[in-house]
Design brief:
Length: about 260
């Protein structure tokens, strides 16, 4: 990819400027012996998104942020490459990698164009990262290229439902009524949001996701819609726990390369 799309630079600037806000959370996640997923901390024991034994596997994390998922995978025995668009986020990841004595290879780059041969990896994962901040029409085929036949891609992101319930002015929290049309969704630009201005996100309808997977050469193994474990009025990132008890704020796709 010779010239970066505008959204890549927008998101790079956003995460470089806000990386300091994620240091403490990254440190806690690296220190945790038990993986948890998403904004509600759903235990890995419930979702079973990672192979228990990854010895001998090569894995890649696409949009790794502070690198805690890469750490969880490395502790399961895999050799790990972790890519992120933000150099500032990677500063935390590299520091913690040295602190914990893991041999993760961190790469400043983008999930849409990874410098690795076809079929280099046995497993790929993205929690938010590429799953939210990269164009799915580009990064999904790139993940497919990177994986060996029969290997899995697991990715978690916020739901399209939560995006179309977000107030048009970007205020928080997510509304209990629809604010936008569902059909035709793709790009959400939050740079001018009233609350917590952000970068550029990507969402698809469920049918568009399925068509993309089929066209790319992925088989759907599982699909999770995550529910908050309890109700509450506090805003967690973009939604309240009460909202997320009623409707899914996050989703996980589990795919296998044909």
């Amino acid at each position: 990819m010779s010239e970066l799309p505008e959204y890549v630079q927008v998101n790079r600037d956003h995460w470089d400027n806000n990386a300091h806000e994620w240091v403490a959370m990254g440190e806690r996640a690296w220190a945790s012996p038990d993986p948890t997923w998403g904004m509600w901390g759903i235990p890995e024991a419930d979702l079973k998104l990672l192979p228990e034994d990854m010895a001998g596997m090569r894995a890649i994390e696409l949009g790794c942020g502070t690198g805690y998922i890469a750490a969880w995978i490395a502790r399961r025995g895999a050799s790990v490459v972790a890519v992120d668009n933000s150099a500032k986020q990677l500063e935390t990841a590299v520091r913690l990698n040295e602190q914990y004595g893991l041999d993760i290879e961190f790469v400043h780059g983008i999930a849409e164009s990874v410098d690795a041969p076809d079929g280099s990896f046995d497993f790929a994962v993205s929690e938010y990262g590429a799953a939210l901040w990269s164009d799915p029409s580009v990064w999904i085929p790139e993940a497919h290229r990177l994986l060996k036949s029969g290997s899995q891609l697991v990715f978690l992101s916020s739901t399209t439902l939560s995006a179309i319930c977000s107030p048009l002015d970007g205020s928080l929290p997510t509304s209990e009524t629809l604010q936008r049309a569902y059909f035709g969704v793709h790009t959400f630009d939050w740079r001018d949001a009233i609350d917590d201005p952000g970068g550029i996100e990507f969402h698809l309808t469920t049918s568009d996701w399925v068509h993309l997977f089929n066209d790319t050469g992925f088989e759907i193994l599982d699909f999770h819609e995550l529910q908050a474990p309890r109700e509450g009025d506090e805003v967690n990132f973009f939604a309240t726990a009460t909202w997320s008890r009623k409707w899914p704020s996050e989703q996980v796709w589990v795919l296998r390369k044909r």
